[in-house]
Amino acid sequence: MTELHLTLAEQKLFASLPANLREGWTVVEEMQKFDDTITHRRTRVSFLKLHDPKLNVLKEQIEGTKDAAEIAKLVADFDLKEVQQADLAELFFALGPQPLYLIIAATIPTVKTDKDVESLAALSLIRNALLRAFVRNYT
Amino acid sequence: MTATDALPEAVPDKGQESVEVRPLLPTPERLSQLLEMDRKDVEAMYISAEARGKLVDTIMEHKEELKADHNNIYRGEMEELIRVGAERLANDPDISMELLDETLQEVQKTLAAKRDFLLETSPDNLPDDEKQELLSRLEESEGEAKTEEERSLWRKAWDAVTWLPRKHPVITLLLALAAAAWGIYYFWDQLAALIAIPNPAKGAAEVAREIAAPTGGEVVGIPQGALPGPTAPPVDIPLPQGGGVSPGEIVPDLAGGTAVPPNIPAGSMPAPSGIPETLPPVESAPLPTSGPPPLDPGETPEEMLEWFKDRPF
After folding, report:
1. Has residue A103 got a pLDDT over 70?
2. Contact, B201 vs B232, CB < 8 A?
């Protein structure tokens, strides 16, 4: 994984990072565009299938409480380590590419380590694949 | 690389006109024509979950012939399309064929997009019959080495996603989405409102009424009985004009009533405040004195909402 798929605006943000963090990465312009709709989104959510035991435990924990603060804490304490990639793919597909524009733009200025850049590259790659699948099939 | 790319086009025999390969939308009318069955018999099979299974079996028995004209002859897809069609008919026996077609078309496009996305990023998540067929075709068209290279790339990418720290906003969003799919809407309603994502739970409720069947099909994420119903919290989230969501768009803060910035077209997100539009050469850029704000939405609902509200989206 050596490429970052970034829009022009995101590229400006990335260019402002220290050179040592940018070193070794190839920035590719993300040119695909897709306007999601509520119909597409709700259909995707209706086909969301999660199997990971860790997520099932979280589900049970969340269902076990009615208190919003407790739910927030459960969410805040959760990490994605060991969550099956199949379920991650399901979740990202249901989410769609739009929120990733927001998250990527917010993430770039906070990058401090090479590992952070790798996570950023992964998010940009996922968005790129989502856009490709959506543009091809929804339009 | 897409599933559709991997599928061979129907090649007409010499002298034949080219045939457009398109998805099969298995309405009763279409199935009665294709399978040469009485339409009333097909409609009767639509009603029963068990008979629907037999209908799918019959379609799959004709798989090779159907593939000449249709590029979506997969058991899982046929099951879902017929299940959704059956529910639509059960809800509205007088539904027009156009509307039924439209519903099935939306589902088919979604399933096709999902198949493409999963084939590229997580092929193990595909149903076995689709996986074997699509991967072998992909290897034929792209070569085994390239296919393996891409799988390796995606293994690394998914690993990198799991390195994201706790409280990273993408994790918060994904879990809020999962919770909404489980019928718990609190975070999704609030977070999605702040970043202009229509409520999927509310959508799922509509889907439940419109297309999701009461029986049949494995639905792990949203058990049929757990679909949010009409009693779901009535949170109306303003939708962008035209039905789409533009990246960078902010909707009013429902709690605080903040102003609405102009609609920003996709892919042209503005630089966050504090970062100039035109950046100086990197070598001469001044080092920040205080660094960016922490990427931590907090632990309480209020902190999470504040975090999303303060982002330069």
Report:
1. yes
2. yes
Chain A residues in contact with B107 (beta carbon < 8 A)? 43
Best to test chain B binding among A13, A47, A67 (most B CBs inside 10 Å):
A47
Do B27 and B143 belong together in one domain?
yes
CB pair distance less than 8 Å for B245 and A88: no
Predicted confidence (pLDDT) per residue in A122-133, tens digit: 999 999 999 999
* Chain B CB within 8 Å of residue A56 CB: no
User: Cβ of A36: how many Cβ atoms within 10 Å?
Assistant: 25
Measured over all CA atoms, what is the biggest interatomic distance in chain A, rounded to whole angstroms?
A: 48
First-to-last C-alpha distance (Å) of chain B: 31
pLDDT tens column, B29-88: 999 998 888 988 898 888 888 999 999 999 999 999 999 999 999 999 999 999 999 999
| Shortest CA distance from B266: residue in chain A | A33
Q: Which domain holds residue B248?
A: 164-313
Co-location of B92 and B150 in the same domain: yes
Radius of gyration of the CA atoms of chain B, in A = 24
A53 touches B: beta carbon within 8 Å? no
Interatomic CA distance for residues B207 and A61, integer angstroms:
26
Q: Which residues of B touch A59 (CB under 8 A)?
A: 178-179, 182
Domain count for chain A, please give it. 1
pLDDT confidence bin for B270, thresholds 50/70/90: very low
Residue A21, chain B, CB below 8 Å: the answer is no
3-state secondary structure of A28: strand
Total structural domains within chain B:
2
Q: What is the pLDDT of residues B220-241, one digit of tens each?
A: 433 332 223 333 333 232 233 3
Query: B168 and B153, same structural domain?
Result: no
Type of residue found at B301: P
Q: Do B202 and B99 share a structural domain?
A: no
CA distance B280 to chain A (A): 9
- d(C-alpha A19, C-alpha B40), whole Å: 70
Pairwise CA distance, residues B207 & B229, whole Å = 10
